[in-house]
Amino acid sequence: HDNSKKFETRSGGATITGSLICGAATFSGTVNVPDNYLLSLGSSNDLQLYHNGSNSYISNRGAGKLVLESTTGEAGIILTQNGSVQLRHDNSQKFDTTAYGTNTTGTAVNDGMIVSGITTTTSHIYLSQDNNSIRFGNVQDLRIYHYSVEGTNRFDSYGITNEFINKDTNGAVSESMVRMIPNGAVELYHNGSKKL
């Protein structure tokens, strides 16, 4: 074209220099795209697949979300630009990222979980096996669990004084109710005054 070579036949096929525009194409062999070159889809190159020599990318450059389907009409992963990543099971939302962390819809089954911030639940927290505990503190000073050997519910403080207190609505400590001191007394209070 205009004295520039655009198409060349080779022993293994053909080489096209520039862009190929076609209505439909069927490939019966491998399509090779070198590093840092794009496989672009959409009228405005909205979806791009490429490898930069180190990592592989699926990039949504157009408007809308990037949706990965497990079958036609059944989304498995939905990625929203400048927003959430959503995981689905049988096309029902189960897990998504939020500006403040993550949100799980349904039951989360974990073999271990470390919470470094605030967790808000709208239902129960279940420990599915006896003797598993909820632990509090940097060195797990307080543990709450069901002890199956004796059939008892336990609050273990590991050498730390346990205290039940009543707080007013603004969170300030207003009244002591019960204090349990390791190797010492159990103190009972009434209206903030020790009675026993």
Mean pLDDT: 86
What is the CA–CA distance across the termini? 102 Å
Radius of gyration: 31 Å
Number of helices: 0
Strands side by side in the biggest sheet:
6-7-8-9-10
Would you mind describing this structure in some detail?
This protein starts with 6 loop residues before the first strand and ends with a strand. The radius of gyration is 31 Å and the shape is rod-shaped. It is 0% helix and 42% strand. Strands 6-7-8-9-10 form a 5-stranded antiparallel beta sheet, with no helix packed on it. The chain contains no helices and 17 strands. The model has no long low-confidence stretch (mean pLDDT 86). β1 and β2 form a beta hairpin. It has strands at 7-10, 13-16, 39-41, 47-51, 56-60, 66-71, 74-79, 85-89, 92-97, 102-104, 133-136, 142-147, 152-156, 162-167, 173-180, 186-190, 193-194. By secondary structure, it is mainly β.
Topology:
Layout (H helix, E strand, L loop, with lengths): L6 E4 L2 E4 L22 E3 L5 E5 L4 E5 L5 E6 L2 E6 L5 E5 L2 E6 L4 E3 L28 E4 L5 E6 L4 E5 L5 E6 L5 E8 L5 E5 L2 E2 L2
Antiparallel strand pairs: 1-2, 3-4, 4-5, 6-7, 7-8, 8-9, 9-10, 11-12, 12-13, 14-15, 15-16, 16-17
What keyword list fits this structure?
single chain, mainly beta, five-stranded antiparallel β-sheet, four-stranded antiparallel β-sheet, 0% helix, 196 residues
